[in-house]
Amino acid sequence: MQEKEVIIIGGGAAGLAAAVACHQKGIEDILIIERGDNLGGILQQCIHDGFGLEKFNTSLTGPEYAQRYIDQVANKKISFLLNSMVVGLTPQKEVAVVNSQGLQHYRARELSKYKVSIAVLEKEDDVGWGISCRNSGVVHAGFNNKPGTLMAQFCVEG
C-alpha cells in the first residue's frame, strides 16, 4: 500500500485547485486520481470564455483555464493517475483504485491525522449546488443512490 499525505479524487477544476492549494500550504506528497483520459474535467468542454477573471485576471475559455491549473500541477510535480477509478474507501482511510496496472491501494495521511473519513470542500453555501442527479460523475448528497454503491456509502458515511 502506498501512503500519500493528501489524496484528491477527481482531476477537474476543484481537484486541481485543491492540489495546488495544498502544495502552497507546504504539502508536497499529493495524489490526484482522475477517472478520465486527462485532467481538467468538464472545463475541457466549455469553449466559451469568461473563466479566470477572478483567479487569473483575464478571460479564458474552459480548456485554457484548466490548462493553467494543469501547468501548475506539472510545475509543482504533483502526482496524478489518469484512467483510474476509485472503487472503494475503507474506515481505515484507504482508497482502492482500479486502472491498467490492476488494483492499487493508497492511504491518505491527512484524513487519518484529523480522524475523518471524508473531507468535503465546497465553494457554494450548500453541497452540490448546481449539480443534478443526472451528473453521476459527481459525488453529492441528497439523491437516492443504489444501496451498496460507492455513492451511497459517501452519502451515509461522509
TrEMBL record:
Gene3D superfamilies: FAD/NAD(P)-binding domain
PROSITE patterns tied to this protein: PROKAR_LIPOPROTEIN (PS51257)
Keywords for the protein's UniProt record, in alphabetical order: Oxidoreductase
Record has DNA repair as a keyword: no
Cross-referenced PANTHER family: ANAEROBIC GLYCEROL-3-PHOSPHATE DEHYDROGENASE SUBUNIT B (PTHR42949)
GO molecular function: oxidoreductase activity
Keyword Oxidoreductase belongs to the record: yes
Pfam families noted in UniProt: DAO, NAD_binding_8
Boundaries of every FAD dependent oxidoreductase domain copy: 108-157
Protein name in UniProt: FAD dependent oxidoreductase domain-containing protein
